[in-house]
Amino acid sequence: MPMTRTYRDGRMLYDARYDRWTVWDLYAKPCPLHCGEAFDLKVGQHFLPCRIEMDCEWFIEFSNTKFYLHPDVSYWIRVR
Predict the structure, then answer these.
(1) I want to staple 26 with a disulfide (CB 3.0 to 4.6 A). Which of 7, 10, 46, 53 is the partner?
(2) pLDDT, average across residues 26-47
(3) Whole-angstrom Cα distance, residue 78 to residue 17?
(4) CA–CA gap between residue 52 and residue 59 (Å, rounded)
(5) In the predicted model, is pLDDT for residue 76 greater than 70?
């Protein structure tokens, strides 16, 4: 019997008070993200596996490609 994976979608928003990105709509209260956490980020109509990191600014890494996050934008993510 094939194993089915359960995914949950939520939004990732920047919280300037703590200089941190948080996940909304997945848990009872907003959940902060930490460097190295992995999830899927929606790019266009597709969810791509990535991880969040911090240098001088927060960014997403997709297999050796950096995507800098804009604090005024919310991003759709998917977690397993």
Answers:
(1) 10
(2) 94
(3) 24
(4) 6
(5) yes
Residue 80's pLDDT band (cuts 50, 70, 90): confident
Domain count, the chain: 1
Tokens of 20: 């941190």
- Structural domain for 22, as ranges: 8-79
Rounded Cα distance between 70 and 65, Å, is: 16
In sequence order, the 6+-apart residues with CB closer than 8 A to the CB of 60 are 41, 50, 51, 52, 53, 66, 67, 69
In CATH, what number is assigned to the domain containing residue 67? 2.40.10.390
Q: How far apart are CA 23 and CA 7, in angstroms?
A: 14
CA count, 13 A, side-chain hemisphere, 62: 10
Q: Give CA–CA dist 40/79, Å, rounded.
A: 6
User: CB atoms < 10 A from the CB of 3, how many?
Assistant: 4
